[in-house]
Amino acid sequence: MKIATFNINNVVKRLPNLLEWLAEAQPDVACLQELKATDTAFPAAALEAAGYGAVWRGERSWNGVAILARGAEPVMTRNALPGDPDDRQARYIEAAVKGVLVASIYLPNGNPQPGPKFAYKLAWFERLIAHAQGLLESGHPVVLAGDYNVVPTDFDIYPTKNWKDNALLQPEPRAAYRRLLDQGWTDALRALHPGEPMFTFWDYKRNRWPRDAGLRLDHLLVSPSLAPRLAAAGVDRGVRGRDNASDHAPAWIELE
């Protein structure tokens, strides 16, 4: 079973890129973030024609998350992260697909920091940690996939000091990510590739893609029952270099 995560950075604008990648990679499950489209604008018909059922939660201009399933209809279990009924941002969706519970996560960016956006990022992270604990205690096989907007360590970014004040690298979100892992989740990309940076994001500015000035922001965390079944993991880097590409590349795992 192949499960992928892809910050598509506007699903309507980059639909041809998405369809091309789906045809090539054929993930069984694909978690999307940054749809930047309303619910009615989501290209469900085109994805269905490509063989994918979908559940999604859109938002005009910003955010938005979806879960696609090849040859199946995902059964949505949540369309929002619990813990704050006043939070209307479309950043979390969860569905059962072929016996696995999968979440598509778009954690807040948090810039500029310090400030209200950074405070929202940290509060959102606390809600995710609380919900993830409940998922672990349920005993279900779970994959938490998405754009976490966290560079876990300095090994997960190209050598630079330009990002030192960025919210993605601050001690607080890094500590929150570590606390999440300490619950018992396995960071699949890092577990299977301990000696490689495994970048998933290259900013459009300053020629960062051609010079491989990347960051690892997109993570797939697997629950303890799934960790022994991890057979492979990777990043489809070439997708980032195509015309009209997202600034992220898809990351994926394969489960036996």
Automatic annotation (TrEMBL):
Keywords, comma-separated and alphabetical: Hydrolase, Magnesium, Metal-binding
EC number: 3.1.11.2
Cofactor: Mg(2+)
Keyword Hydrolase: yes
Protein name (Swiss-Prot/TrEMBL): Exodeoxyribonuclease III
Keyword Zinc-finger: no
Lineage: superkingdom: Bacteria
SUPFAM superfamilies (alphabetical): DNase I-like
InterPro entries hit by this protein: AP_endonuc_1 (IPR004808), Endo/exonu/phosph_ase_sf (IPR036691), Endo/exonuclease/phosphatase (IPR005135), ExoIII-like (IPR037493)
Lineage: Bacteria, Pseudomonadati, Pseudomonadota, Alphaproteobacteria, Caulobacterales
Residue ranges occupied by any Endonuclease/exonuclease/phosphatase domain in the UniProt entry: 4-248
Enzymatic class: hydrolase
